Amino acid sequence: MKEKFFSSWSGGKDSYLSLLKAKEEGLDIQYLLNFFGEEARSMSHGLTEEILKRQAEALGIPLIMQQVSWGSYQMGFVRVVSKLKEKGITGGVFGDINIVEHREWIEKMCGKLGLTACLPLWDMAEEDVLAELLKRKARLLIVSLDKKLLSREWLGKEIDQKFLSVCREAGITLCGERGEYHTLAIGGPLFRKTLEFVNKGSYEKEGKLFLEF
After folding, report:
1. Domain 126-211 belongs to what topology?
2. What does 125-185 look like in DSSP terms, one character per residue?
3. Fold of the domain spanning 4-118
């Protein structure tokens, strides 16, 4: 029988490209799985449930959300993935690129739960990740950034070559793997329609700026 997978889902560029690659490899993606925090926003990206639901609808893949804190993340992962196993899920797709401790955690947890771990982007050069996304005409909205590293003016704009040049000049990893910035995929391959948004300003939390939209 064909294996059935969930895709670990932040809503951003890395999880989007890993989803694209997984589907092109023939994986049967049944669900998008997102974890959100105590403030009813997704971890790291600060996205509301409504935004993520609209994105999942545009992609045509059911979204499952699990509330956790950073302290209870592992327990929440086990809880929700165990339920997915009962639905016939046999593996997970993850968008990690080069942070070894992240891969080790994924493989440890999937091993304990008897799941196949698939990391389609692993060991890609970050420049290649962005180049492939832009070549595929992915539309990637910048929804959060570290204000010490990037100018506020980029919040609410889409990733382009100029933004990548700014990252290089600032010495920032191009994919923002250490949290320098986060994105929301709003259009491109797999999307049935491009998401439209209204910029309503920003809010700040722990030195990071988040888009209100």
Report:
1. putative n-type atp pyrophosphatase, domain 2 (3.90.1490)
2. -HHHHHHHHHHTT-EEEEEEEETTTS-GGGTTPBP-HHHHHHHHHHT--TT-TTSSEEEEE
3. Rossmann fold (3.40.50)
- Reported as a single tens digit per residue, the pLDDT across 27-77 is 999 999 999 887 778 877 989 999 999 999 999 999 999 988 778 889 999
Domain boundaries, the chain: 4-118, 126-211
The model's pLDDT over 134-160, given as tens digits with 9 standing for 90+, comes to: 999 999 999 999 999 999 999 999 999
- Rounded Cα distance, 130 and 14, in Å: 9
Could you tell me where the DSSP H helices lie in 28-139?
49-59, 73-86, 100-113, 126-135
